[in-house]
Records
---
Amino acid sequence: MGFSTDAIHAGQEPDPVTGAVSVPIYQTSTYQIPALGVYKGFDYARTVNPTRTALETCLARLEGGKRGLAFASGMAAINAVFSMLKAGDHIILSRNVYGGTFRLLKGVLNSFSIETSFVDTTDLANVKASFTPATRMAFIETPTNPILTLTDIRGCADLCHERKALLVVDNTFMSPYWQRPLALGADMVVHSTTKFINGHSDSVGGAVITATEEAGERLYFIQKSAGAILAPFDCWLVMRGLKTLAVRMERHEENTRKVAEHLEKHPAVRKVHYPGLASHPQHELARSQAGGFGGMVAFDLGSYAAAKALLDSLKLCLLAESLGGVETLISHPASMTHASVPPEERKRIGISDGLVRISVGIEDAEDLIADLDGGLAAAEKAGASTSTEAAPSRSL
Ligand SMILES: *Cc1c(COP(=O)(O)O)cnc(C)c1O
């Protein structure tokens, strides 16, 4: 079946009792067992819940994996993946991996002697040079947040497999509609379903999809043991979101292309980062490993004052963290999502004080562009001033 058909039907057969076409929300913590020692496959809802199973089956199908597991958040999903490791194991990660992943490793899992190397994975030579005898896993994000640099998934998978390490790809920014890392050799995919997969900014959740049954079994054991499961109502919401994933992603991308092309022509904008633009240094890699370019764009206005002027004057684009919703969300990485990254490190990874990130929604593109034009006019005025104010920081 095609992607859209699977998104609507996989794991979601009509209810055998009533024929309900929407999978019921099994809001129960336990199940009556028919007789002592006789089970229908349902004992306790942390272990198994039919609403969750429906979502997990659908996600596995969409990513082309063997097993899907749904978690209480993207971070819970990522923590479950890292729980497959043991003390002394080493992980190679993309240098500008999601901030929460960085915090989990540096502030929590460091106490369990999980060793890390954060490297620029855009160049496979860096990945290759980072393996140690203890490396068990590489964890990449492509494209990265917020400046959308890419990592060659197949190249990374080959390097990992030569050394018996697992490749995990955080596919949150692309969703399985545009990018399916398992088909390129990755062993596991993780998602924050909070973002494009649910798509309506009304649920926090996460998922892992595995290429093999063995990895799926191990993660299922971790899921039921650690217990960070996604609640039935959220499973239902995410399934509802999935049904329109294909049409949403098409529209997100169409709008993002229009916005990116408009920004690229605007005199107030120094640089636009979007893999769909021919000017993106990895445009060809983007074309070769994904079906589309996604709904995220970042651009540099040259100074904190200019970025602040733009953000303060927008009316339609909402100033907020998060991404992937139907509504356009705009953010200032240096003072919001990346505020805990030290300023020198921010500079090194390309997050300047003038950088603005947009998660382009599915509104009418003309309305978004009109709103941004108002902000860009304000930015131009502020940029001409001599303010050298820097973005505020905060701690990990
Ligand atoms: C949001 C996000 C996460 C974390 O997911 P939560 O649902 O917020 O826990 C992980 N990776 C990426 C790329 C994200 O954008």
---
Amino acid sequence: MNNPPQHAVLESLDVKDGCLQIGGMPLTRLVQRVGTTPFYAYDRKKISERVALLRRSMPPEIQLYYAMKANPMPAVVQHLAKLVDGMDVASLGEMKVALDTPLSPHRISFTGPGKKLEELRSAVASDVIINVESASEMERAAQCGEELGMLPQVSIRVNPDFELQSSGMKMGGGAKPFGIDAEQVPSLLQHVGTLGLNFAGLHVFSGSQNLNTSAICEAQEKTIRLAIEIALQTGVAIPRLNIGGGLGVPYFPGQQPLDLAVVGKHLHGLVHEIRQIFPRIEIAMELGRYIVAEAGIYVCRVVERKISRGQIFLVTDGGMHHHLAASGNLGQVIRKNFPVLIGNKIHQDADEVATIVGPLCTPLDILAEQIPVARACPGDWVVVLQSGAYGLTASPVAFLNHPEPVEVLV
Ligand SMILES: *Cc1c(COP(=O)(O)O)cnc(C)c1O
């Protein structure tokens, strides 16, 4: 049998005395501390390092926003609130978590289609910036402002007239439920003042999980040109432009990490260009996955080792109900394996090919398929790497009614 290629991140693991280190402690101690499996653990130092890397690589004028939907664990959000310039939230629940941080409400933006009246009212009352996704949403925001006797802060989410090429998930360009089509924005902008709204800026988010440097640079360039065009056409000053993000991380064999220096250098030129025309415009980037994905692991325990017609199955106490992304059911077209290892046997060769599954009665409950791992038995720990983003938060935990996994920030 051909062994699938190993993942690059397995070669750069943080290992001390033969033991995988998480948050500066050996995995063995972490498992004892948590006291149960399955669990997610997020490494606070790795999150900080990631933000520092972004700060070093991006132009100094760029503000960094954390898109909370990637990992809304309150402890993670509190940690990040000290490191980033702002947060983007996509629900009232997320907005409450962001408002619990020391960030000013003007540093919180509320994005997402179909915001309900009570959500808009809460946002206006809290003075957070509402990223309006339609003309009628803008009117509803104004209505809330009138009711509350407050001036709502709104920015306009623009559905651009271009796509972010080679993105794992496209969220702009063509017909989309997100944002207001670029061609309608100028006439709408002229309305903002008459509606009794404070215009806070423009927001363009065109896609997610992109590992193609030139596609990212191109989308950033088009975004900045679009903002310049809208501003010049309408004569309306744009206080802030959020250019989105979409920076991806390598999940599968063969994928390479992004060269952030190239993105930063290109963006530097673009910032210079727009600042020559609009010297005071603030420019923000908004990232979720890139900040937290590599800082997280998911750990579950082997319950049973089974052989079926010659194939080895490791049945664990975790699975797709906790980690939908690793199971391949969160938008993957062809299922590929996340990097996985046997956490208490990392010094042993991965000389066995096994399929790692969960306890659910569905063939979709796969954590890794035909993957080379160290020979594992009941009691051993399966560790899924690159699990800090879209892990628990994007999983169907209620499916089959197993207990929820624990989350820790270490
Ligand atoms: C999902 C989303 C993000 C975060 O995307 P990542 O790929 O995790 O960086 C940012 N902004 C908006 C509007 C989103 O919907």
---
Amino acid sequence: MSFGYGLSTINLNNMIKVDEKGFYGKFGGAYIPEMLYPNVEELRENYEAIMATQEFQDEFRGLLKDYVGRPTPLYFASRLSEKYGAKIYLKREDLCHTGAHKVNNTIGQIILAKKLGKKRIIAETGAGQHGVATATVCALMGMECTVYMGEIDIARQHPNVERMKILGAEVVPATSGSKTLKDATNEAMRAWINNPVDTHYIIGSVVGPHPYPEMVARFQSVISEEIKWQLKEKEGRDNPDIVIACVGGGSNAAGAFYHYYNTLEVRLVAAEAGGLGINSGKTAATTAKGSPGILHGSKTILMQTEDGQVVEPHSISAGLDYPGIGPVHAHLFDVGRGEFVAVEDKDAMAAGVELSKLEGIIPAIESAHALYALNMIEYQKDDVIVVNLSGRGDKDLETYIKWGKY
Ligand SMILES: *Cc1c(COP(=O)(O)O)cnc(C)c1O
């Protein structure tokens, strides 16, 4: 076994490995206001050394095992496999505590925050999933937790707001601008600038200024680390032919791809949200519709107007409703290492219902995008395909009911 989760940078292709300044090829870096520089710099200088200590690894691994419930199963989906004519395995991140992969990252970051001597956690959230994962680990560690959320999102995502409150977090409405995620991010940044010494800011995906994208990817890399030995047990080889994951910011995909970046014979398929269609004006298909620019502190690909205004994204799944992708995915796209597909709302819903009926698993609508990609890519009969099932569908019940076609 390797020494620890996400520490195997030595094995990574230089093309994919992040450089000193946080760039994956042309994308990444840290484009931040000067006032934020000391906070980000403190993290950058310390995260690798802290993550490499045995003490950190013991605590991280211990909590992933006993609190999150890892390793999550790699489940051979026989009825789904029969239907598609391939050997399809589902990586069951839906069985993580709190119902999705996001907690892998928040556990890692809160241990790191504690080691850095922080007393207080702030986060921003759109749909509330990252807010809930953050509030959860703050309760676990007895840390003060403030979650910034757009006023409109607070109204739209009522159950998650109440979850955060039950867990002891304070939810602060962002009332400026469009009153959604972007404004919540601005408020959280402002709060961090004002409390640099005692506060850590937990970002929920592989986005934001360096070192966040790489740090979050390493925490999530436990997903592909497990896939490797689980597949070895089941198939006698640790490399599948194809790994498929959905991409909002891209953290579950980065985790599922991480230990395969350098294994060029493993195809990496990223499913973005096509919304109502990539040319409908209501989409979140970033690589199809986007161009290079700066979003949330890093250079990446985002959907923007000609004069650089961020275009409001649309997806039926809250977790994919984001106008950009993390810089590592922009790079995978740029160098042709990843295959990107855009899955429309209606097709994702159909794939979610299909999995429910074939396997008795109601997936998160985000994860259903990855499932539908099976219909959009080419593969050989009996190829081994791993689909990362990033979350469960309990949170999406209302959307399934409104959709109605089941
Ligand atoms: C948040 C979320 C996503 C999207 O986030 P990534 O950072 O792209 O992984 C995907 N699936 C589920 C279930 C989520 O909660």
---
Amino acid sequence: MAGRKGQQLVLLLVLALWGTVTASHQCDSGDLQALNAFKAVFLDPGRLFETWTGTDCCDGWAGVNCTNSGRVNSLILEGPFPTRGPNPYPKSGYIGLAAAALTDLTELETLRVISVFFNGPLPDTFGNLKKLETLEFGFNNLSGSLPPSIGQAKKLKYLTINVNMPQGFDQKFDGGPIPESFCDLTDLETVSLTSSRLTGQIPACVCNWQKAWSLELSVNALESEIPNCIGYTLKQLTRLTLDYNNFTGPIPVMLGRLTELETLKLDHNNFSGDIPASFGNLTFLEEFTASDNELGGPIPASFGNLQALVTLDLSYNYLDSIPAELGNLTSLYELNLRRNKIQGRLPAEIGNAGSGVEQGLQLDVSHNILTGKLPLTLGALASFLAHDNFFYGPFPQSLAAVGYVDLSNNYLGSWGDIGPAPETYDVRILLLRNNRFVGPLPSWIPEILNKSRLITDIDISHNNFTGDVAPLFQDAPELRLLNASYNSFQSHLPESPFVTPYGSTLDLSHNLLDGPIPASFFTNNAGAQFIDISYNELSGPLPDSVGDLEAIALLDLSHNHLTGEVPKSIEQLNDTIQYLDLSFNNFIGSVPATALEHKVSFDDDDHEYF
Ligand SMILES: *[C@@H]1O[C@H](CO)[C@@H](O)[C@H](O)[C@H]1NC(C)=O
Ligand SMILES: *[C@@H]1O[C@H](CO)[C@@H](O)[C@H](O)[C@H]1NC(C)=O
Ligand SMILES: *[C@@H]1O[C@H](CO)[C@@H](O)[C@H](O)[C@H]1NC(C)=O
Ligand SMILES: *[C@@H]1O[C@H](CO)[C@@H](O)[C@H](O)[C@H]1NC(C)=O
Ligand SMILES: *[C@@H]1O[C@H](CO)[C@@H](O)[C@H](O)[C@H]1NC(C)=O
Ligand SMILES: *[C@@H]1O[C@H](CO)[C@@H](O)[C@H](O)[C@H]1NC(C)=O
Ligand SMILES: *[C@@H]1O[C@H](CO)[C@@H](O)[C@H](O)[C@H]1NC(C)=O
Ligand SMILES: *[C@@H]1O[C@H](CO)[C@@H](O)[C@H](O)[C@H]1NC(C)=O
Ligand SMILES: *[C@@H]1O[C@H](CO)[C@@H](O)[C@H](O)[C@H]1NC(C)=O
Ligand SMILES: *[C@@H]1O[C@H](CO)[C@@H](O)[C@H](O)[C@H]1NC(C)=O
């Protein structure tokens, strides 16, 4: 018994092997004709049809697959992405017509035509393709609109018609309204109709697509309200993208029932009203964007349940409050609330958000009407953009651990509890422009410059710091910008051993700095590209060492009380200098302007800007 079974097995194996080796599925003559007709309407500069020769389309024709009986069941043409630039032309791609011959391949299950410069309107004969499961046209040069006959390809599961032209090309495809016939495609699992100039409303009958797990309609001109039924019928949806359209009305509360959702993009529309509290039930949601709408009211406290949330972008709306519950969102990586109408204090709990993310949370609450003192507990953030608000009180020292801090245009001052110093100083960019700091530099500023080995930008301009400027000069090896202009610093320029990194910018203008310029000032800053010490009270001669500035593009010494002759060494700046301003001083003699190619402003009434 066992022996006979064994023999049968061997026989089966032999037959199976024989079948695959001989691959006897000679191409169906009708399909061959259709493929040849299709090939005939293509220019083929990239010779991508090179393999389409002979009569057996099932044997080695690139992109063509057959059934065992020689019928073409899959055609996949994927050209190289068309070249961009002034003369965009697909030099190595296909160029051809969206020929009706395609729909003569009646056994097709898969038809994907991507980036091949398919010109003209799509044929409206998709009803021939009764077995079609996958249909994709992307990055083509289509004209016309969506063919309603696609709705007759009843087996369709994956439908993608998107980005019909790469950026920089004229788009001629006017998708038009989503044809009602598409609603008959009840097997659809994914629908992607992006960047296709779709117009009109989403027909309510899309709620027939009950097997859909991904529905993408981004970047079209769809308008009006979105059908409420989506919320209680398309239960499988994990991805819904309606961004960059013209939708209006409230966000349907019912969408809160799509509990499988992982991605929900509603940004760049004209949605109004509140954000539904029901969204707190979307516990798998990873990305929610609703920026650039007309949404108002609070961010619902129920958002504290969205434990999977990674990205929450509600910027550019009229939202008015942040719930402390957002601090519960441990996976949050980006929280963007820029340009809303959020008032009151920033809840300290926000500092806990993103605690499960290694890099920390990127938080943007800039351009709101937030006020009160900053929480002392924001040190775990990756970035904190809170400029253009009404925060007052001290700068919490723990922020020196945050990579990018912008608190410009607030009312922060040098008083009150600054909290504990951070364990590590990781700040790279620290912007405190236009606040209300007064008095001598508090020690935390030089400490940041000294201890944050990564700091590239520090801007404390437009405050009213007084006293000695020297503590700003620390060994900060990555510094690109030190802006302390528009303060009331009153001291000599420092003779510190601090060396500005090559290419950096130093702006100490509009202060009360006095005394002579030490020779070491230029030597130590020899690599600087931009030095502005104008509008101070500096006196004495300009030291010879000015010629040491090897990278200088802009040097502004104007509006001081410098005296004596301008040293000859200044000619050495000729190679790099773009703008040199010596005006409004008490120099005697003349400047070797010819050597500097007239890139100099010297006389008080002679302002040349280059
Ligand atoms: C087409 O056939 C090749 C080789 O047999 C196979 O690797 C590929 O998966 C097939 N493609 C489709 C879409 O059926
Ligand atoms: C794209 O289509 C237009 C006509 O709709 C045609 O004039 C143009 O030449 C086509 N571009 C390419 C690169 O085929
Ligand atoms: C949205 O609608 C407005 C007003 O009807 C119109 O001016 C605008 O062009 C539309 N935008 C898009 C992307 O369709
Ligand atoms: C958006 O809606 C507001 C009213 O809510 C309306 O004033 C505005 O014109 C709309 N904008 C567009 C582009 O439709
Ligand atoms: C969340 O779902 C539960 C049960 O599914 C429901 O009772 C509750 O009303 C929903 N919450 C909101 C805010 O809609
Ligand atoms: C969420 O945050 C609030 C306020 O910060 C807190 O009272 C609540 O216990 C937190 N809930 C969970 C589930 O962590
Ligand atoms: C800067 O740091 C060095 C050592 O890292 C230390 O010796 C020095 O005192 C510090 N200066 C200031 C102003 O903190
Ligand atoms: C800056 O502070 C100095 C000294 O405290 C004060 O005299 C001056 O008026 C202040 N300037 C501004 C613009 O507040
Ligand atoms: C320094 O800050 C002042 C005032 O904020 C600004 O006008 C100036 O352009 C800044 N300087 C540089 C070099 O960025
Ligand atoms: C100044 O530099 C320019 C190039 O930046 C050069 O052409 C010119 O000859 C130089 N002039 C003198 C006087 O060295």
